Design the sequence.
């Protein structure tokens, strides 16, 4: 694996879960975890188990819903879906991350003289 | 919004642990299964597929823990876990737990009980609406007690007219004797009870509503009104079986058909407020304008201030009204006499609350401090016990922290342990206190106000919680901090005796024990001083001999058209009674008096030597007693000169007996041959021959100074009542039946009256002092026991720790007595430090309680020396057992151990 994997920043996992649910629709825990791993190109160090703490946090805030259902291969699983207030929150958080990463990009792109590229 | 939602979700989750856990379990299982299937589809073997799935998932338990942490209230979970653990470890250590709870229960129980007493007597307002407006109006306390704190009918009227700061003023007749009411129902023997005459507006002014019926109206107290009575709740229950239809019924009371117009509420007890320790069964309206009008100062004043009027304003107002007040309006010289009564301002309102409980403030504060001391000792003791326990568990804690427990978690554990203990102690203490209070409530004979309303109320419960928490923090914190600052590695290595932390523990414990000894010492000195005072009070020469004497109320009915005829009939009736009773075997002497000492009293005026003009603005008057010949002998009061005889009749010279103090006072104004008043003539408008001078009798209490007294013969005067006093050769109680039978033979209307040993009256007067002394003494005994336990614990622990060292010493040739001595020296050093500190503290404390002492110096050497000897002896005893154990250490066994 050469390069070591990225540690997740506090709060990023919740945002990833929200975005994944917004993109895929209702999905079970394993599916969400896999999806995040795939999208991140296996760059993120994700213990799949930690995602369940994120689910409960989001659920308790009313941003996602959960329901037991059946998976494609007829297995009982809990399906999560994003709620209306979850979408709003996603918009807010995404905008915030965008701004933060822009700022970080500009700060890190500083040349030794301090001129902007 | 979402934060609020989350919080409530977390709380809900906390209570649904089981279903949520099961849900999570199922979800994780499904997750793993799906991952395995996926992996198999990618061509892995089932075993490898499972391994990979588990690796990708991370720790299952960790995931669960994280989810639970996010889901519920983790801190509360840990707290519950700690409490459960505490219960487990405490129930494993049953002996320790029981001792700890017992010590706490004693300390906390004593505190709650005393707090309830303090709360009832000092803190809580009197049981009347707006009771802060109520004032007692009287001159400042003087030698002649209640007799100088009363006013006449005319003074009452003038005061009401000329004062403006009172909503109203009321009062009661201050000179009723207990047992003054005789109730006849059917043909049976009359029943004796006590009733107080009150001014008709008494209940309106206090704001007391009868539980049944109505209160008095001015019509009830008019001359010639038909007699009415209001019963106390207790008497209504006892005597009338709580008859719900009692109002309107009439009974024969003192020979008059008297209608019951009301029953008082249970919350109002006249005796509890105005004359502690006396049972008042009923209240009757007084006719202010009847014969009492000319009979002098009969009434106490109680006023209710107008809203917004301050005490200072009322004081000024009362002083302004005083010059208008006359003893009797028809005697102009008597006007204004109240203003400079007793040489001071004579009409002064003080808060009723202060009148009722002001005298007790100091005693109660001392008592309160004493139980506070007990609580401190109990806490120190427990701290010590916990420290010993913590030392024994040091390894356990070190192990736990090596396994990842944080320091806060361990200290929290210790605090929870002490909190659990002190809550258990508080509950047990509450039970103990309620038993104690239930007992106190029924001590009607203790002359303390409001005792009947003692109870554990909200304030007491709050106090309990407060001291329980205080105790927990106090005795839990010391070992907690000690544990937290310990070095884990040191502890784990600290396997043998003599190493650093063991020593440190011991030093701390020694300091705690020395503190305990010092506190116990202060308590003991205090108790010793109070005990000495009490013994001194018992030793006071009362001026009469209470042993082997008893009194009983006599009913008599005298008729006579003229004064002379009446007095002659009265003499005959009393002679008959005394002859009959005097002939009973076992009766040495008998006499009759109208007021017994240590009870009610009154004054008539101040007779002066004949020919001497009394100085203006004169001081208190002597207390008056009307007696038969033989009374002095029955009471055991010595006479110089002669006693009255039955021949001092209505037509012969008026005679009196005066006491030594009064004779001494009068001697200042005249020149008596031989300086003796015997045979001299006094005058108060009529000539009075001093037949004899008698010993000073303590009429208010054993502790007070004896005032002035004057005795008049029944052959020439009208007694208010008749108390038969007998002196017996046998114990007085055994004579009760024969005396009462004899009285009933002479007069069938004689009620079955209480036969009261005079000693019991003395005891009653001494009861508050006895009460405080006993309480402080038992607290001191408790403190001493706890301190002894503390010494024993520390010495015994150090012997156990040093068993090996002692073994080596003995193997090297130390004798048993040398070992014993070294343990003793240790004990003595502890005791010495504690006693020295305690004795110094006691010097200050004893000065603070000096006002409570009677004829005892605050630095009374007897009390101090006795205390040092006592606590020293107890310390030695507490050290003896471990010392003996140390001297019996078998070197071989000790060395082989460990």
Sequence:
């Amino acid at each position: 694996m050469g390069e070591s994997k990225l540690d997740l920043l506090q709060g990023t996992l919740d945002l990833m879960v929200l975005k994944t649910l917004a993109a895929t629709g209702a999905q079970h825990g394993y599916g969400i975890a896999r999806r995040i791993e795939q999208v991140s190109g296996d760059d993120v160090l994700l213990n799949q188990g930690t995602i369940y703490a994120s689910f409960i946090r989001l659920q308790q805030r009313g941003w996602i819903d959960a329901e037991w259902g059946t998976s494609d291969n007829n297995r009982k699983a809990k399906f999560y879906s994003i709620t209306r207030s979850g979408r709003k929150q996603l918009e807010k958080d995404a905008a915030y991350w965008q701004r933060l990463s822009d700022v970080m990009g500009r700060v890190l792109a500083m040349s030794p003289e301090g001129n902007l590229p | 919004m979402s934060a609020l939602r989350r919080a409530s979700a977390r709380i809900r989750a906390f209570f649904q642990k089981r279903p949520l856990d099961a849900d999570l379990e199922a979800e994780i299982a499904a997750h793993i299964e799906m991952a395995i299937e996926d992996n198999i589809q990618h061509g892995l073997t089932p075993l490898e597929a499972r391994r990979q799935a588990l690796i990708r998932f991370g720790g299952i338990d960790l995931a669960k823990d994280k989810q639970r942490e996010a889901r519920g209230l983790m801190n509360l979970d840990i707290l519950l876990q700690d409490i459960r653990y505490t219960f487990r470890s405490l129930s494993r250590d049953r002996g320790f737990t029981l001792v700890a709870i017992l010590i706490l229960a004693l300390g906390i129980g004593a505190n709650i009980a005393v707090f309830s007493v303090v709360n009832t007597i000092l803190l809580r307002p009197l049981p009347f609406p707006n009771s802060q407006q109520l004032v007692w109006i009287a001159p400042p306390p003087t030698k002649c007690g209640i007799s100088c704190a009363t006013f006449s009918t005319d003074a009452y009227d003038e005061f009401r007219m000329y004062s403006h700061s009172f909503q109203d003023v009321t009062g009661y007749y201050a000179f009723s004797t207990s047992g003054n009411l005789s109730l006849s129902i059917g043909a049976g023997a009359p029943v004796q009870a006590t009733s107080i005459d009150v001014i008709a507006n008494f209940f309106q002014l206090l704001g007391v509503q009868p539980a049944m019926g109505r209160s008095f109206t001015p019509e009830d107290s008019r001359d010639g009104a038909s007699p009415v009575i209001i019963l106390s709740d207790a008497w209504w229950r006892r005597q009338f079986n709580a008859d719900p239809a009692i109002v309107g019924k009439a009974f024969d009371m003192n020979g008059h058909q008297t209608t019951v117009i009301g029953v008082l509420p249970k919350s109002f007890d006249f005796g509890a407020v105005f004359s502690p320790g006396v049972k008042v069964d009923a209240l009757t309206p007084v006719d202010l304008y009847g014969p009492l009008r000319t009979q002098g100062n009969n009434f106490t004043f109680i006023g209710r201030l107008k809203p917004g009027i301050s005490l200072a304003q009322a004081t000024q107002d009362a002083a302004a009204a005083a010059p208008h007040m006359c003893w009797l309006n028809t005697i102009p010289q008597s006007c204004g006499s109240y203003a400079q009564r007793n040489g001071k301002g004579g009409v002064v309102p003080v808060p009723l609350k202060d009148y009722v409980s002001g005298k007790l403030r100091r005693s109660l504060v001392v008592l309160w401090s004493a139980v506070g001391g007990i609580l401190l000792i109990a806490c120190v003791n427990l701290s010590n016990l916990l420290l010993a326990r913590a030392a024994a568990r040091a390894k356990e804690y070190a192990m736990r922290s090596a396994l990842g427990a944080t320091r806060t978690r361990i200290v929290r554990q210790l605090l929870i342990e002490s909190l659990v203990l002190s809550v258990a102690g508080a509950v047990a203490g509450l039970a103990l206190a309620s038993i104690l209070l239930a007992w106190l409530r029924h001590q009607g004979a203790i002359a303390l106000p409001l005792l009947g309303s003692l109870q554990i109320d909200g304030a007491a419960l709050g106090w309990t919680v407060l001291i329980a928490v205080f105790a927990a923090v106090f005795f839990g914190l010391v070992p907690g901090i000690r544990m937290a600052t310990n070095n884990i590695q040191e502890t784990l290595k600290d396997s043998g005796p003599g190493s650093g932390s063991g020593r440190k523990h011991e030093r701390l414990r020694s300091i705690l024990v020395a503190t305990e000894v010092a506190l116990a010492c202060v308590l003991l000195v205090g108790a010793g001083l109070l005990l000495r005072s009490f013994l001194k009070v018992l030793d006071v020469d009362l001026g009469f001999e209470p042993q082997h004497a008893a009194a009983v109320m006599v009913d008599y009915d005298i008729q006579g058209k003229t004064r002379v005829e009446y007095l002659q009939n009265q003499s005959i009736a009393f002679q008959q009674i005394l002859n009959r009773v005097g002939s009973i075997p076992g009766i040495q002497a008998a006499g009759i008096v109208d007021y017994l000492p240590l009870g009610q009293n009154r004054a008539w005026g101040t007779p002066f030597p004949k020919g001497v003009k009394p100085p203006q603005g004169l001081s208190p008057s002597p207390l008056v007693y009307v007696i038969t010949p033989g009374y002095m002998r029955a009471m055991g009061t010595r006479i110089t000169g002669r006693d009255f005889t039955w021949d001092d009749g209505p037509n012969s010279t008026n005679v009196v007996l005066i006491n030594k103090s009064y004779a001494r006072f009068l001697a200042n104004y005249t020149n008596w041959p031989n300086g003796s008043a015997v045979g001299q003539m006094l005058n108060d408008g009529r000539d009075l021959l001093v037949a004899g001078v008698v010993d000073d009798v303590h009429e208010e209490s054993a502790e007070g100074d004896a005032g002035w007294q004057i005795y008049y013969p029944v052959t020439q005067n009208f007694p208010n009542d008749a108390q038969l006093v007998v002196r017996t050769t046998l114990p007085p109680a055994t004579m009760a039946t024969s005396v009462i039978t004899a009285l009933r033979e002479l007069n069938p209307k004689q009620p079955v009256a209480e036969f009261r040993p005079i000693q019991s009256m003395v005891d009653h007067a001494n009861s508050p002092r006895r009460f405080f002394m006993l309480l402080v003494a038992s607290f001191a005994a408790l403190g001493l026991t706890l301190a002894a336990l503390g010494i024993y614990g520390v010495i015994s622990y150090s012997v156990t720790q040093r068993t090996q060292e002692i073994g080596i010493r003995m193997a090297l040739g130390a004798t048993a007595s040398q070992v014993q001595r070294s343990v003793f020296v240790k004990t003595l050093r502890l005791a010495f430090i504690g006693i020295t500190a305690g004795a110094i503290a006691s010097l200050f404390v004893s000065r603070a309680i000096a006002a409570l002492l009677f004829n005892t110096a605050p630095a009374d050497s007897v009390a101090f020396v006795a205390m040092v000897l006592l606590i020293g002896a107890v310390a030695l005893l507490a050290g003896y057992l471990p010392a003996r154990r140390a001297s019996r250490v078998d070197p071989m066994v000790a060395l082989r151990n460990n």
User: Anything to note?
Assistant: The radius of gyration of chain A is 17 Å. The domain at 12-108 of chain A is CATH 1.10.10.10 (Arc Repressor Mutant, subunit A). Chain A has a mean pLDDT of 84.
